[in-house]
Amino acid sequence: MYLFLKRKKYLNDDIARSLFSFGVLFLAAANFVVTIPSMGRFQFVALPIIAIVFLYCIQKGEKDGWLKYLNYLFIPVTIFYLIVEIRIGFDFIGLNSIFLNPMIAPFFPDSPALIEFFK
Hints:
By secondary structure, the protein is mainly α. Helices cover 71% and strands 0% of the residues. The protein starts with a helix and ends with a helix.
């Protein structure tokens, strides 16, 4: 909504305007078909497109007063998210996933998950 309301200020170049229009159209189509089973995955594609437009406009445009401080809020949240996702990944990734070639990995026995080495 913020980007739509301030579009004259932020969507002043063709890249931002085109990507924003495509993202809104794709999100509208995804919301329309979300009631069909397994069609909710299109929302997961449309939302990063909107996020990319928002980040692009923040980098290119003039920053409002509160928008400067928003970066300081996002850095700890992003680091926490990455730590949690890496921890979740340790439950599924073994040493074979890291060190072996995917072509020869099926011929070797599975190694325990990485979380077992840290517990």
